[in-house]
C-alpha cells in the first residue's frame, strides 16, 4: 500500500515537472512583455534595463531553472503588470472562485440528485423524459451562451438580478465572501446556476443510471419481500449504494468546476482566478499566467492522487490490480 | 467489437438502416435541420443578402437596427444589424461556415491522428505503448478547456492556431478508444489467421484490425464535432480564438455581448440560436446513429 502511494506520488511529481516545463517554455515563446510594459518612446538603454530587471536577458533554461527552484519555495514570480507576487494575486482571487464553484456544486447536488432519482424510478413517465431531455440540453448548451441569456432575461428584461461583480462581501474567517449578505447572494445566484448547469446534467444522468441498476438488484427485491416500505427502500437501500460513485464524481469534478469557472467569471465579471487569467493573457502578464496554470495543475494532480488513493483504500479489486500495474 | 453495418442483412443494408433511423421522428427532424444548416454553411456566399465583410456594402448609418427594420435605401434586415451596420443574417450564414468548417476539419484530423497513434500503441505494445498511454492519461486528466486555453495563450490568435488547439485536445480521446478496441481485436482468431498467412504487420493492422475498430468511432466523432464547435465558440468568446477577420458564431456572440446590456439582444441572440441549433441537431443525429448502429440494441 505504502509503495503504491509512494509510486503514485512520484508519478504526480513527474507530471507536475513535465507540465511546468511545457507551460513555462510555451509561455516564454509568446511575444515580448517588455513591448507592452514600457513606454513606446523609451530608448534602447531603457529597454535593456527593464529586460535585465525582469531577467528576460537570460537563456530560457536558466530562466526555467530559476523559476522552478523559486517555485519550490512558493515563489512563482512577480506580476509584470502590478509588481505584486503572482501567487499573492491569485490567492487573493481564489476565495471568489472557490465560493462560486462550491455554490454551483451544492446547486447541482441539491437539484440533480432528486431529479435523477425520480427519472430512474419512473423511467417511462413524462416527467422523467422531460428531465432527460433537459439534461441533454444542459450538456450541449455552451456555458457562455446560457450565461448571456440569463443576463438578458433576469438583468436586462426583468431587472431582478445584477449582471456583474460580487456585490457586498463580508469577512468570514478572514475571507471576503458574498454568500452571507443579501446583496452578495443576489450577485452569486446567476453565475452559480450558470456554472452548475453542466454538472447538474451530469449528476442527473449518473443518479438515473445508478438508480435503474440498483432497482433490479437482489437486495432491493429482498428488502421489498421483507415488507420494507418503498420510501425506505429508495432512501436507504438504493440511495446508499448509488452514493459511492456519485461522491467520487463530485470530488473529481470539483477541479473541472474551477477550470470552467473561467468562462462564467468572464461572462459575469466575477472577480475570481479565471477572470484574472483571461485578463493576464490579454496583457501578456507571463508570471501570472504561469502561476495560475501551475496552481491549477497542482490542484488537479492533487485531486487525482487523492481519488486514486481513496479508491485503493475503498475497493479491494482496484487495490490488487493497482499494486501489480 | 462487431461493427453495426456488418450485422445488417446483406440484401438491402442501406434501406434497413434508413428504416431503423426513421423510427425516431425527432432524429429525422434533427437530420433535416442539420442538412439545411450544412447547405446554408456551404452556400453562404451565394445566399447571404449582403457580403458582411465587404466594407463598401456597409453603412454606419444602419448600425444596431432592430430585427425587421428597414434602412433608408429600402433594405430590410430580417435579424437586425450589428454596431457596424452589418446584416446579422448574412453574418450568421458566414459564421456558420467558419464554425462548422473549423469543427469538422479539426475533428477529422484529430480522429486520423488518434487512429494512427492508437493502432501503433495497441499493435507494437511495450515501451511505445506505455509512453503513448502516459501522455494520453496525463492529457485526459485535465479539462479540455484548460488545455486549449494554455495552448492558445502560447500560440496566440489565428484560425490555424485554434485548429491546432482543437486537434490537440481531441486526439488523446480517440487514441485511447482505438487502442482499447484494437487490443480486443488483436486477440481474435482472424488476426491469428492473418499472421499465419504471413501478411505484414502493416497490412494486418490496416486491412484487418482497422476496419473493425473504425465504425463505432466515426459515430463518436460525429458528436465530437459538436463539442469542437462549442469549444471554438467558447474560446472565441473569451477573446482567444478566432481573429476579428474570420468571425465565427462565437465571435459574433462575443461582439454582441457589450450591446446586450443596453437591450440590443439580437446581435448576440441570433448567432447563439444558430450555434444552439447546430449543436443540438448534431447531438440528436449522433445519438440516433449510435443507437441504430449498436448491435447490442438489435
Q: Which spans of chain A of ≥5 residues are poorly predicted at pLDDT below 50?
A: none
Please tell me the overall pLDDT of chain B: 81
Whole-number radius of gyration of chain B?
A: 23 Å
Number of helices of chain A: 13
Most strands sheet of chain A = 2 strands, antiparallel
Query: In percent terms, what proportion of residues of chain B is strand?
Result: under 5%
Approximate shape of chain B: elongated
The overall pLDDT average of chain A reads 80
Report the biggest beta sheet of chain B as strand number plus sense, adding barrel if it closes.
2 strands, antiparallel
Assign an overall shape of chain A: globular
- How many DSSP-defined strands of chain B? 2
Spans of chain B of at least 5 consecutive residues whose pLDDT stays below 50 are 1-9
The helical percent of chain B reads over 70%
Largest interface: A-B, 44 and 36 residues
- Overall structural class of chain B, as computed from helix and strand content, comes to mainly alpha
Q: Which sequence of strands runs across the widest sheet of chain A?
A: 1-2
Describe this structure in words.
The complex is a heterodimer of chains A (325) and B (298). Chain A has 13 helices and two strands. By secondary structure, chain A is mostly helical. Chain A has a two-stranded antiparallel sheet with strand order 1-2. Chain B is mainly α and 298 residues long. Chain B has eleven helices and two strands; from the N terminus they run αααββαααααααα. Chain B has helices spanning 4-7, 13-21, 25-47, 88-124, 126-140, 144-155, 159-186, 189-196, 201-237, 249-260, 266-293, and strands at 69-70, 76-77. In chain B, strands 1-2 form a two-stranded antiparallel ribbon. In chain B, strand 1 (69-70) and strand 2 (76-77) form a beta hairpin. Residues 1-9 of chain B have low confidence and may be disordered.
Amino acid at each position: 500500500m505504502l509503495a503504491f502511494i509512494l509510486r503514485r506520488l512520484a508519478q504526480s511529481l513527474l507530471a507536475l515537472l513535465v507540465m511546468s516545463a511545457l507551460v513555462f517554455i510555451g509561455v516564454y515563446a509568446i511575444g515580448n512583455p517588455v513591448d507592452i510594459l514600457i513606454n513606446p518612446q523609451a530608448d534602447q538603454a531603457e529597454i535593456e534595463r527593464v529586460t535585465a530587471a525582469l531577467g528576460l536577458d537570460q537563456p530560457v533554461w536558466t530562466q526555467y531553472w530559476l523559476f522552478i527552484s523559486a517555485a519550490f519555495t512558493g515563489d512563482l514570480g512577480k506580476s509584470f503588470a502590478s509588481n505584486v507576487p503572482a501567487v499573492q494575486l491569485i490567492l487573493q482571487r481564489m476565495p471568489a472562485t472557490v465560493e462560486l464553484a462550491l455554490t454551483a456544486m451544492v446547486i447541482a447536488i441539491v437539484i440533480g440528485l432528486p431529479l435523477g432519482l425520480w427519472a430512474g424510478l419512473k423511467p417511462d413517465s413524462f416527467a422523467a423524459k422531460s428531465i432527460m431531455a433537459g439534461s441533454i440540453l444542459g450538456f450541449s448548451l455552451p456555458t457562455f451562451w446560457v450565461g448571456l441569456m440569463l443576463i438578458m432575461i433576469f438583468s436586462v428584461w426583468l431587472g431582478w438580478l445584477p449582471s456583474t461583480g460580487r456585490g457586498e462581501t463580508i469577512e468570514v474567517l478572514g475571507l471576503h465572501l458574498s454568500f452571507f449578505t443579501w446583496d452578495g447572494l443576489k450577485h452569486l445566484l446567476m453565475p452559480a446556476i450558470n456554472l452548475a448547469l453542466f454538472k447538474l446534467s451530469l449528476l442527473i444522468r449518473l443518479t438515473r443510471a445508478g438508480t435503474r441498476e440498483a432497482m433490479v438488484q437482489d437486495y432491493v427485491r429482498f428488502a421489498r419481500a421483507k415488507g420494507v416500505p418503498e420510501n425506505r427502500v429508495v432512501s436507504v437501500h438504493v440511495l446508499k449504494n448509488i452514493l459511492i460513485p456519485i461522491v467520487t464524481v463530485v470530488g473529481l469534478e470539483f477541479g473541472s468546476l474551477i477550470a470552467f469557472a473561467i468562462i462564467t467569471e468572464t461572462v459575469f465579471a466575477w472577480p475570481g482566478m479565471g477572470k484574472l487569467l483571461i485578463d493576464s493573457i490579454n496583457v501578456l502578464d507571463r508570471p501570472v499566467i504561469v502561476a495560475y496554470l501551475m496552481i491549477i495543475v497542482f490542484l488537479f494532480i492533487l485531486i487525482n492522487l487523492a481519488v486514486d488513493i481513496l479508491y485503493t483504500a475503498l475497493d479491494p479489486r482496484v487495490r490488487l490490480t493497482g499494486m501489480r500495474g | 467489437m462487431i461493427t453495426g453495418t456488418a450485422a445488417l442483412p446483406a440484401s438491402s443494408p442501406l434501406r434497413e438502416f434508413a428504416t431503423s433511423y426513421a423510427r425516431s421522428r425527432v432524429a429525422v427532424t434533427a437530420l433535416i435541420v442539420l442538412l439545411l444548416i450544412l447547405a446554408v454553411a456551404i452556400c453562404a456566399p451565394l445566399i447571404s443578402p449582403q457580403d458582411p465583410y465587404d466594407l463598401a456594402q456597409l453603412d454606419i448609418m444602419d448600425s444596431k437596427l432592430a430585427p425587421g427594420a428597414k434602412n433608408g435605401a429600402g433594405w430590410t434586415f430580417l435579424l437586425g444589424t450589428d454596431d457596424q451596420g452589418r446584416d446579422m443574417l448574412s453574418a450568421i450564414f458566414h459564421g456558420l461556415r467558419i464554425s462548422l468548417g473549423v469543427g469538422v476539419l479539426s475533428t477529422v484530423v484529430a480522429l486520423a491522428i488518434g487512429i494512427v497513434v492508437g493502432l501503433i500503441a495497441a499493435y507494437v505494445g511495450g515501451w511505445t505503448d506505455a509512453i503513448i498511454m502516459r501522455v494520453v492519461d496525463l492529457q485526459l486528466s485535465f479539462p479540455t478547456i484548460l488545455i486549449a486555453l494554455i495552448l492558445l495563450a502560447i500560440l496566440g490568435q489565428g484560425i490555424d492556431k485554434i485548429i491546432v488547439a482543437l486537434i490537440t485536445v481531441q486526439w488523446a480521446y480517440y487514441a485511447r478508444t482505438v487502442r482499447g478496441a484494437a487490443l480486443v481485436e488483436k486477440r481474435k482468431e482472424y488476426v491469428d489467421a492473418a499472421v499465419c498467412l504471413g501478411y505484414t504487420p502493416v497490412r494486418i493492422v490496416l486491412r484487418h484490425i482497422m476496419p473493425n475498430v473504425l465504425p463505432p468511432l466515426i459515430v463518436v466523432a460525429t458528436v465530437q464535432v459538436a463539442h469542437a464547435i462549442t469549444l471554438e465558440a467558447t474560446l472565441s468568446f473569451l477573446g482567444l480564438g478566432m481573429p476579428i477577420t474570420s468571425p465565427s458564431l462565437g465571435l459574433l456572440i462575443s461582439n454582441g455581448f457589450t450591446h446586450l446590456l443596453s437591450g440590443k439582444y439580437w446581435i448576440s441572440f441570433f448567432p447563439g440560436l444558430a450555434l444552439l441549433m447546430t449543436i443540438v441537431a448534431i447531438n440528436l443525429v449522433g445519438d440516433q446513429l449510435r443507437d441504430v448502429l449498436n448491435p447490442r440494441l438489435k
